[in-house]
Amino acid sequence: MTIERAPKNRNLRPPESYAGIFAEALADLPGAEGHALAVRKAQFEKFEKIGFPGPKVETWKYSPLGPIAKTAFQPVGDATLGDPAADAYLLPESNAIRLVFINGDLDPGRSDGLVSTDEVTIASLGDALGQNLIDAGQLLSECADDRGFDALNGAFADCGAVIRVSAGQAAPKPVQLLFVSTGSQTERMINPRIVIELGDGSSVDLVETHVFGDDAGLLTNLVTRCKVGESATLRHDRLQIGNVQGRFIGRFDVDLGEEAKLVQTLATLGGGFVRNEIAARLNGTGIDAQFNGLYLTRTGQHIDNMLQIDHTAPGSVSDQYYKGVLDGRAKAAFAGKIHVHQAAQQTNAYQTNNNLLLSPDAEINTKPELEIYADDVKCSHGATAGELDERELFYLRSRGLDPETARTMLTFAFADEVLERFASPHLLEQAKREMLRWLPGGDTLADMDV
Questions:
Q1: What is the pLDDT of residues 34-80, one digit of tens each?
Q2: Residue 349's closest CA among 380, 384, 376?
Q3: Angstrom distance (rounded) from CA 168 to CA 254
Q4: Residue 61 to residue 53: CA distance in whole angstroms
Q5: Where are the domains of the chain?
Q6: pTM for this one?
Q7: Model confidence over 4-25: pLDDT tens digits?
Q8: Is residue 76 within 8 Å of residue 188, measured between CB atoms?
């Protein structure tokens, strides 16, 4: 099957067979009737028009889509899929409200029921559409007009959640969204959609876990739309964990109101091709937005993190702090842009991307970027890439550690600085356990209870 370039936007036209796939899948998608049906059809038409980003699209320069753009992915549907051990990744029942999705299907046995009160709504995508808890257009519309993956998600959205907290309220417990993909050797896709709306002065802790199993054929295409009201607080942890075969493309799109606070910590410890996009707009004064990220890559992995932070009003703070550890023939990319609009005087914006290369064959492409139109700001950005410090290695070896343990200890210390920023102690424990499993000789550090 050939793919033609769209002449104006340099995008790639999707395979024609998507039209038949969409027509066949409609009846099985949540809320596929009435207004929701019309919205899905409109999103699919937009997807056909936009297509996928081609190799000359600057923001995808270091992460060409290759086979993903050429493949017409089928919804998971009734494919024969394995029974994953999701329990290991669940937060304790007493500590969280949990929604668990196995290959795009809500797992009622592991999930808590619908929460719908005047103060708090926590519902799966199916319940939100089926019980008219949210307008279908509001739920399924795209984030970015020129992003084909958003429109594809809006057309095929099959799982996800709606989280709403009224003004002045707080969610009674952290909310965990657990997505497990496993067992498919054919080209299938999952399209989670998450909508978060926080009223003025409200707060919620969101714990998001993506587990990549034996899923060489699966693609997860996630879209998250978030609105944080004035003086509201969102703490968002995302952990991507598991095998190095899964493919994940996700966008987190957030608008922040005056005096709002956002703390997001993201750790990518699994997946074969992973792209995390963060788009944040700071639309008021006194906003504090922190973006923390860690990616560990081995041979065969490609991890891409792209952030765009827009300061549109004066007197707010943003901080991007990302670290990468690359081994073998791994590849990674980081692109972080701070855009300070002319009205955003007295902005403080910081960006750091530090990378540790454990192999001469590892590759990192990093692009820190500032675009400033105001003249009373404090902004900085920087990126580093290097090896372990030989002096530190010598010091540890002089204290009796063997070379492998010394290297592992320094690598762990480098990465752990980001992991410690997780708001959820349970997620922190899971991430540390996975990282020690990933590192050579990590069991030695585990015995030390680091």
A1: 788 899 999 999 999 999 998 888 899 999 998 899 999 988 865 44
A2: 380
A3: 20
A4: 10
A5: 82-399, 400-450
A6: 0.93
A7: 444 455 788 999 999 999 999 9
A8: yes
